[in-house]
Each structure stands twice: as C-alpha cells, then as structure tokens.
Design a protein that fits this description.
Blueprint (H helix, E strand, L loop, with lengths): L14 H26 L4 H45 L9
Helix pairs in contact: 1-2
C-alpha cells in the first residue's frame, strides 16, 4: 500500500481560495471599521489612516489564523470520513486499535 501525503491547505482546491478570500475581506473590514471610527471622532487624517492600516493588518492576521484553523479541522474531518468510506467498501483493513 502506498503512503500518499495529505493535501496541504495551499494545494487544496477549496481551502486555498477560501483562506485568501477571508484574509482579504478581514483586512478590508478591519481597515474600514478603524477608519470610520477615527473619522467619526474627528481625528486627524494622518493618524486615522495610520490606525486604519494597523487595524487592517491586525484583523487580516487574526482572520488568516482563524481561517487556517477552521480549514485544518475541515480537512481532518474529510480525511477521517474518506478512511471510513474506504473501510466500508473493504479497500482498507480495520485496525485493532479501534
């Protein structure tokens, strides 16, 4: 039996675009919320934009970490389900540990 490597998040056809989309939307949302908060309090333009950029970067990083964590769980669950389907078909032997 060959040992195939599991697909990484970067190579997965649904995970990679989903993570990229989440990062983009998170960064934009963080930027706009921070900018609106600054402009709403009549803060100077330069400091508002600086804080908005920092806010966008922080939310971008948190969103990236959350998206990766979610997709790792999803891919792990998909791998377990694929193993169970293969065992039901009889193409994989059952292990004694289970």
């Amino acid at each position: 039996m060959s040992r195939d490597r599991l697909t990484s998040l970067r190579e997965h056809p649904r995970a990679a675009p989903s993570i990229r989309r989440a990062k983009a939307l998170g960064g934009l949302a963080g930027f706009f919320v921070s900018a609106l908060a600054g402009f709403g309090q009549s803060a100077p333009f330069a400091s508002t934009i600086t804080r908005a950029l920092i806010g966008g970067i922080v939310v971008y990083l948190f969103t990236w970490a959350a998206a990766v964590a979610v997709w790792r769980r999803v891919l792990g669950a998909q791998a377990v389900a694929a193993i169970e389907r293969a065992r039901e078909r009889g193409s994989l032997p059952r292990s004694d540990a289970e």
